[in-house]
Every structure is written in structure tokens, then in C-alpha cells.
Amino acid sequence: DSGMSWDFFVPVCVGDLVKTGGINQYVVQDVVSAKQLPSCLNKFKAALRSQGPLCILEHFDTGYSVLQHCKAVDLAVKEDTLELLVQVVSGLSVSLPSILVSTSLSAAERKEKLNAVKMSVFLLCKLTENLESDSYRQNIVTAPGKGGKKGKACGEGLVQWDSEREQVLQALVQLFQLDIRSLWSLSLVEEEFISCVTCCCYKLLENPTISHVKSKPTRDCVIHLLGLLIKKYNHLLGAGVKVIQMLQHFEQLSSVFAQAVSVWSTEYGVRAIIGEVIREIGQKSSEELAREGSGVKAFASFLSEVSALVPELMIPNISVLITHLEGESHTMRVAVCEVLGEILVRVLCGDGLDESGRADRDRFFDTLQEHLHDSHSHVRTRVLQVYTRIVNSKALPLCRYSEVMELAVGRLMDKSINVVKSSIQLLAAFIAHNPYSFITIEFILFFSLSLPAVAVIKASELWAAMVPELLVTVRKELEPTSEEEKEQQEDEEGGEVEEEKEAEDDRATAVKIAQYLRVNNVQYLTFSSGSDDDTSELNQNLPPTPQKEPEKEGEDGELKKQEMLVQYLKDTETFALQVERAISVINTMLYWKTTSVVQEAVQFCVTVCEFSVANSISGVRKMLPLVWSTDAAIKDAVIHAYRRLYLNPQGDTIRTKAQTLVDSLSELMVDSSLGTIQCLEEIVSDSVITLMDISSTVVQVLWERFTGKRETSSLYKRAAVLLLGMAREVVLSNLDTLCSVALGEKVTEDFLLARDAVITICNITDHVRVRLYKSFMEQAVRLIYFLAESPDQLCSRLLQRSARLLLDQIAEGGEILMSERTLCDTHGALYSHNNMSFPPAVNCVCLAQLLAACGCVAFWQVSHLERSVSAELRRRRGETEEREEKEKETQGTIESNPKSNESTMEEELGLIGASAEDTEAELIRNICETELLAEENLLSAFLPLLVRVCGSPGRYSHPQLTTAACLALSQYMMISPSVCEENIRLMFTVLERSTLPVVRANAIIALGDLTVRFPNILEPWTQNLYARLSDEVPSVRQTAVTVLTQLVLKDVLKVKGQVSEVAVLLIDPDSHINSLALNFFNDDGELEKLCQRFRTAKTERQWCDLAVSLSLLSMCERGFKRLQECWECYSDKLTEPGVYQPLLSITAKLRRGAKPQFKAQVDEFEQRLTAVHTRGLENVESPEMDEENQKAGVSAEKTVTRTPAPTRGRLKSKEGQESACFEEPCCRNSLFLILVTR
Fold it and tell me: Which stretches are tagged as biased composition: Polar residues (predicted)?
């Protein structure tokens, strides 16, 4: 209407515009149908081109109709409408500036422009909200990556909307940047109009992806648009309330609103918004924050991020937040502590604080220190992290170092792992940024005692030392440097020759000198004593400088300096003692079972070592054995630590780097044990690639030090020879040089060097001749038994030749002449004439190799019989049965007689195949029992020698010989029950009395294998196995608990009264043994307890919860048996689906990868579960059902095959003892693989 007799009022609800309005209020006259909208939009476009943005006054109903039919119209229609509305708003933003500044604007024109603004903004905001909702729904419903036209169209629409949304916001920002308030009467903009825009903004912020990087343009536009509305359109209070409400419901908006509040308070100057929001958060009670959905996490995150952006604006409102430190919400306590930390790091820091700032700083530090003892571990952790940041930023006052340091050391004993880790990090920061020098306590005490004798330099002496340099500097600065300056100076001084004027010039010059010295920070020009007249006069001539006239005042100043020095030394002493205490505590954490704590402790040791802290090398050496840790993270941490400290040489040349590297490693090698050397060897070998470019130079430097070409101390010579021992090939190729230097004529000068050289040579030879030989021998024998047609004959010749070489070695030594080369007398040749005073007549290492080969052959011979020979017998039997079957078919039907009927019945019952298998197994057992160790068999010749070596540890004390003999004897005992019975007492004697931990550990493993193979023989000795749980060596205890746990899990051993001996290991000092003992008790006890609770459970919900708990347990074959044993506990509850389904899932998990025999048991149990679930317990386990089950079982037994699969259980021997039948070589289920590695 050209008269513009109506006003447009922004409705509360969109539907209100079609209702009858008030006087002169605009009402929608024509709501266009969805089909007519495209044609109406074309008219709208044409009007926009011809009339400009004011066309919205005539075509408002078209845009309103799109809103009304939003769910029915196509996406293209809504996008076209959106584009038109954006053009209208943008057009108004272009045309309004000239109108707003016009003084001749009529009331009608003002009303026209105002209605156009309100109409276009209203339609644009509402349509934007609608499209945002559609986009969000499509984002949830449409699966990403799906094909099809619909999915593709939706995806394109979403991408297009992202760009259109940004255009909408830019148009609104452009409009509201203008001062459109003048369009309203008295510049009072109605609240409904502002709410229309703000609601659209907050709707966009509800998008879950608004905080993502890709949404940054949209996020920034929304923040700036709201900033304009807050600053110009009185949206301050509304924004504060809305921020709180949205934080309660949308946790992801904490970072968005933190950025928004920062922008509003800085770029738009509305600092009050921070006060409004913080005041609302501060007024939240503890009870309200404790409720679910209170938004406490979002509030806490918001406060932390705002303090990081504008910490200075948090100070005026901090008193409101401090109240939350006394509340129950630990999340809010964390947030407040983080706010305090940001303020202390970025605002209240430095020496330029006024008295009020220092008071606030001290108060905040006191608050933080109090919460180092907070009741919640998360708060303690965060406070320690805040202090770490403060220390790293050098914002902690010196007077608080000792106090905070002491608190941090105390937190090392915290029960929370996270607190302990944060404490270690804080202590490392203290060491890295401390203001004290790391000098020894002894030096501090000595220096403190000598303080009274400290000389004080007088001012005159200081001035006399400064005069020459001072004169040069003053002349350079005050004398004119150019001709113009000289002429100007002459003009100014012309005609003035009075003495009084000259005196004034002298005084001015002196003042200039003093000013120059002040400007250039000449700190050492201080006059602390009035003893010199010239100094006093000069001081009097400097008015700006405060005077120290009395001599007493100067003496007090010197005394004060000395007092400050004494206090500094006391603080240094306190700090050093706290560091020593921290080092001792953290060093113990290197062997904790928590990986992350160990990693932090390793990093701390590196830090203290890098800063040359006293006693720091103790932790570095203590963490060295962790290089053998089974935890890859810990091993990597140690290797990287040593690389950083010792294997990262610095220097300009390769030679310099090599010398630095050798110096670093030599410090570690001095007085190192053999274990330390082995650990270093592992690290060096792991880092050989990084040292490849300087390795040859390093070897050269080591040889120079060892041979004395470069003068060095005896300690570093010894370190050099030990380091050379790590490069075995280098030492072997220069063995003559090594011997001539260390073991030559000068051997008496340094016996320790000779000792270390011998150790190096022995380590190299032992490594080459023993460990490599043993590994090679085992694999060679294994290969022979797998590939050779007659492996027993090959191995027999191998043992004969090895024994002959050993006997020849004895004969060549002249210790004994053997006329008979019988192997049975080999043990008699070990000591000539059985006189222990004579030296051994045979090389113990060579004998150890022979005995190890004997045991290995015996072991694989048994495996060969039970694997290959048994398989060949089955194959032949199968062929024979097949041939007989064909002969029967060709002969025709044989007349029925009692004998044939009996054989037919045996075949049906499967007795023929079973008896054949028993015969084959009995044959194998007879071979092991009677033939393998018969007198004519080579293996029997070595058994007496093994028994003698193992039974005489005092005579045969060589470690390698003893280890090899005990291992070989245990392998012999695997052959037959008779050999096991004959030597079982000797093996347990070795287990209990051997002085070598490796022998005791190997014996435990061997006896575990024998327990599996011959359980009846080992059963009386069970208590002796458990006795090793109290062995004094941790490695033996660890092996014992590992073996016993495996035996118990496999149902080989039953735990009775010995459970207390395992329980003691729960408090073992070794953390690894602790965990193994814990695993021992965590197997099936929980399962049985849960089953028993079915009896006391009263409700169906409790039954279902117990069943679900059972399904969550990890269950093995032993646990399944326990579940079957507890059948009566839960069988009457199986009619409930909530009980039946979880138990059914247990059977599904047990069936995966199970052996056929066990799978059959699981299937039977599952059928039983299903039967009870469907028919009820009373109908399944009645006597009639039992009879039916028995009949079904008989009919099922008739379907057996003639030649069943080989039995994988235990076989009965003649003596009634059980022996395990091996699937592959007997090492498949054996622990001897562990023995081999030892």
C-alpha cells in the first residue's frame, strides 16, 4: 500500500500473522499453495529487479507461504526463496546509509523502510532456522558413503547449505552494522525483532559440528552478529542467560562461547558480559551442579578456556568463582584452579606488581597450595599440572620454591597414579628452571661457615677500577663528533669565561655522566660507603640520586647483603636436600608395575642427569636393567633415554663426536658389574644404526686408550677394554694385541685391567662356543628328526663322534690313558685317579656340549616315536583294513556263524579300532621302556654320567656343565616311567640344594613337564614344587608361580593346602611376581561365587544380572567344567530368557577354536540348556527322559568309524601311570622351549 497505513509487528509464533491483528497491524492475506509457489517466486524475482528491496512489502506473503509449506516444498524452492531474501537484505544494507543520515526523512518513508527491514529479516531468519533443522536431520539419517541418487542429492544439498548459511550471516552482519535504530521511534527497537535474529544465531550454534574447523566461517559470523546485537541493541542480559542455558544442554559449545565472550569483551568493548556469565555460574549451588545434566563439565571447560583467552578480565570476577572451591563438584574446583593458574602465569607475574597485585598473587598461591591436598585425585593432579606450567613460565616467586617443592615431593606418595606422574613432572620442571646452582651440600656448609671472612669491596676501589673505561665512554659520548657541532659549541661558549660559569658547566657535565650511566643501566656504579671524600663530594653533586650519608647506613647495607647471601645459601641447601629426597623416591618407581609411572620416572632421571644434579647417576644406572623389560614401552623409554644422554655425541668432527661418546660410556663402565655391561651392550647394539657413521672412529679411540697411545687413567683403560668386548669381531681379530697389553710384561702394574681383559675374552669365547653352539645343536637335531629317514642312526653316529673327540682330548692332555674307548667309562676320566686335588682332565665346556646333545637326542627320539612312528603304524593299519575289506567284498557273503557275529558286533561297537590303537600305543611305550635305554643302545651309556654330575655338585661345580647335565637328565626322564621314578628324588634334590638359580629354575620347568607326562609319579612330590615359591631368588619364584599356575589351569594339579603359599606372593617385593600371583587367584573363583549367588537371588532382575556377569568372564576349559558343576545353582532359572541368552553366549565363545572333543562337550551342554529353557527343568531331568537319553546314546555309538582319529588324551602304561601322547614333537605342550633359551 503506497499510503503505508499499517505497521509490521514481528510475531511470537509464525502462525500469528494469519490471524486478525490490531489496529494498523499487518496480516497475511493470501497463503499461496505449494504448487503455485514457483510462479509466485518468479514474480518476486521480477519485482526485485524492477523495484529493488522494497518489493518485500508486496511479496511478503510469498515468502511467508514458503515457511508455511516448508515440509512439503522441494529443497530448490526453499533455496531460491533464501537467495531472494539475502538479496533483499543486502539491498537494504546498500540503500539505508544515505537515508539514515538524511534530515528530511518523512514519517511515511521511515515507516516504509522499517517495515521492509523487519519483514525481510523476519523471513530470512525463520527460513534459515528451517533449513538448519533440515540439514541436521539429513546429517543424522543419511549414512555417509552410501550410493544412490537420494544420498548424492542430500550430500550436495548439505554442502550447498554450508556456503549459503555463511552468506545469510554476512548479509545480517552488514545490515546490523548500520545504525538502523533511528528507524524506530525514539530509537527503541522492539525486543521481538532482536529475539528473532538472536534465536536464529543460537539455533545455528546448536549444530554439533559448529566447533569443528570447517565451521569456523559460520562460527565467526555468528559471534560477530551477536556482538553487534549486544553492543548496539541491548542484548547483554539476554546473551548472558542464553550462554548459561546452552552450556547446560550443549557441552561442545564451551570453546565456542569462550571465544565469543572473548571477542565481545575485547573487540566490542562489552566487558560486562564476562561478569554476567561468571556471576551466573558462581551462583550455581553445589546441589544444583551435582544433578545430572547440570552442565558442570561445560561450565568448567568454559571457565578454563576463557581464562586462557582473557585472563586479565577474570580477576574482577574471581571472588565469585572462589566459592566453588568449597563445593562438592571436583570438576568446578579443577576449573577454578586452572583459572588461578592462568592469572598467575600471565597477569600477576614479574617484579612490577603493585601492593594490591602482590596481595592477590600471594592469596591465589595460598589457595592453590591448599588444594594440593584436595580430597579428589583429579583436583590434585590438575593443581600439580598448573604448578608445572607456573614453574616452566618462571612465574613462581623465589620465596615459595622450597614450600611447593616439599609439597610436590610429598605427593610422590599419593595413592593416585595420575597424581604421582604429575608430581614427577613438576619436580622435573623445578630442576630444569631452578634459580639455584647445583652444588653439593658439603660445599654449601663449608661456604656458610666461611661467610664472616668475606671481603667487602669499597666504593673507592670499585671507582678506581672503573675510571679508565668510564673516561673513554664519557668522552666518546659528550665530545662533538662533527664540525657543525663544534662550531655550535664554540658559539654557545663565546664570551663566557667567568669561573662561576665554568663551575656550572662542570656540574652539568657530571649530571650528564650520571644520567648517561643510569640510562645505560650501569649497575655496578653504586656507592655503598662514605669513607672516601671524593666519592662523598660526587654523591652530593648528584641531586636525583638518593644519598647514603651516614657511614652506619653503609655498614647496614653491607650487613643486609651478607644476610641475603646467607639466606640464599640456606634456600639452596634446602632445595638440594629436597632434590636428593625426590631422586631417592623416584628411583624406586622405576620398577613399578604401572608403565606410565615408569616412563615418567625414566624421563625424570634423564632431566636430573642433563642438569648435572648430584647423585643423578644413581637413577640412570638403576633404570639400565629395564632394557630387558617385556613391556615394549618401558624398554623403548630406557633406550631413548640412554641415546639422549650417552649415545648422542656432540662435536664438529667425527673424531670429536667419537671421543665424546667414549667419554660418556666410560663414565658408566667404571666399576660396573657384569650385568650393567650386558645391559649397555643391548642398548649399544640396538642403537648401532644411529652410530654407524662414527663406529669405526669409536673403535679406534678405544684401542688408543687401551694401548696407551693416548694418555688416560687406569679406570678409563679398564672401561675401554670392557667397551671393546661389545664388538666381538673386533676383539677376536685383535686378540694378540689385547693379550700383549693387558696380560704381558706390565700385568703386575694393573691387575684390575688384566682381570677385565680376561672377562672380555671369556665372554667372547663363551658367547661364541656355548650359546651359539647350543642353539645350533638343538635346531640341527630337530631338523634331523624331521627330515631324515633314519634319524636315530644319524644321531647315534653324531654322539659317538662327539664322545670320541672328547676322549681324544683327554688322552692328548696326558692326564689319563684310555685303553678302552668305552663310553661307560667317560665319567671316570673327568678326574684322574678320582683325586679331587688334581685339575679336571676334560674341558668342562666341551663336556657340557656333549651332555646337552645327549639330552636333546633323547628328547627328540621320544617325540619321533610318538609322532612319526605312531603315524606310520596307523597308516599301515589303515591300508591293511582297507585291503581286508576289499578281499571280503570279492569273496562274497560269508555264512553267518557265532564267531562272525561276534566280530561284526565288535566292529559296530568300534572295539577293533580301539584295541588296535591300544596295541600301537603299548608298542611305543614298550620301546621307550625297554629299548631306548637298553645296554646296547647308545643313550644308556650317558645316563650314569648324567646322574653322577647332577649328584655331585661339589665335584662338578662348573655352571655350564651343571646346567647342561640337569637339563639333559630331565629330558632322559621323559623317556619312561621307570627312568622318571629312579631319578625323581635326585631331580628334587637338585631343585632344593643347587646354588645356581638358573639350575633351580630349569628344574622347576622340567618337573612341570614331568608332572604332565607322569602325574601319578609326581603327585607325592607336589609339596616340594610349591616350596620353591619361597625361594630367595626372584627369578626362581617367578618361574615357580608361572609353572604352577599352568599346571593348575590344565587340571594337572589340584590346589589344596598350598594355596596359602601362593597367597604370600601377593605381597612379594617383585611387582611381576605380584601380578602372576594375582592371576593365579583370578581364574575360576569368581565364576563359582556368581553361580552360588543364584541360590540367594530373589528377583528375575537379579538372575538376569548374574547371568550377564557370567557371560562377561573370560572362561577356559577348566572354567567350563566349573560351570557344569554348578548346574543346580541356575538350572531352575533357565526358563527366563534373560538368564538363558547370556549362558548361551558363553557356549558360543567356548566353541570358537575348541578341539573336537571339547566342542562336543560344549554342544551337549548347549542342548541341555535349550531343553530346560523350552520344556522346563522337571520335564528334562525326569527318569523317563534319562531312559530316552540313554537309548539315544546307544544308537549314536553305533555310527563310529572303523579307524577313529588318534587319541589325544593320556595313555595308560603297564604300571598304570598316565603318559601324554604328543600331537607333534613332545615340545608342543612342553615348557622345554623355555629351558632352551636359558
Answer: 891-903
